[in-house]
Design brief:
alpha+beta; Alpha-Beta Plaits; two-stranded antiparallel ribbon; 4 helices
């Protein structure tokens, strides 16, 4: 079960066909709901939890086999963190920070383009 923190949030996560059996066999939260996607074999888990950061870390541990669908704010945070991570691993790209505070966005750009911007 994933519960840490003081507030609760309903999360919806899609798991690939490869990991659906593992997700299906456990109870992740007392109020969880599982929905099968018969078209591609994926599984959608909806649950209420108070562990925002724990859920993000947990979903990231599944790599490309898990995707946050809701809430939108968590989905956005995940996309930004993954974009920043890709910038560390892909030598052909770098991450550009745009804005500040809550309006901060991270954009992946080819390094050749960035080299022109820096000059």
């Amino acid at each position: 079960m994933i519960t840490v923190g003081d507030f609760s949030v309903v999360t919806t996560i899609r798991f690939s066909r490869e990991f659906a059996p593992y997700i299906r066999e456990r109870i992740w939260a007392p109020n969880q709901r599982l929905t099968e996607d018969e078209a591609d074999g994926s599984l959608i888990l909806e649950m209420e939890t108070s562990g925002w950061l724990d859920v993000k870390r947990w979903v990231m541990s599944y790599g490309m086999h898990a995707e946050v669908l809701k809430p939108q704010e968590m989905r956005k945070e995940m996309a930004e963190e993954l974009t920043r991570s890709l910038g560390r691993y892909d030598p052909a790209h770098t991450v550009i920070r745009q804005g500040s505070g809550r309006g901060t966005a991270y954009v992946l750009r080819e390094r050749a383009v960035d080299a022109e911007i820096i000059r």
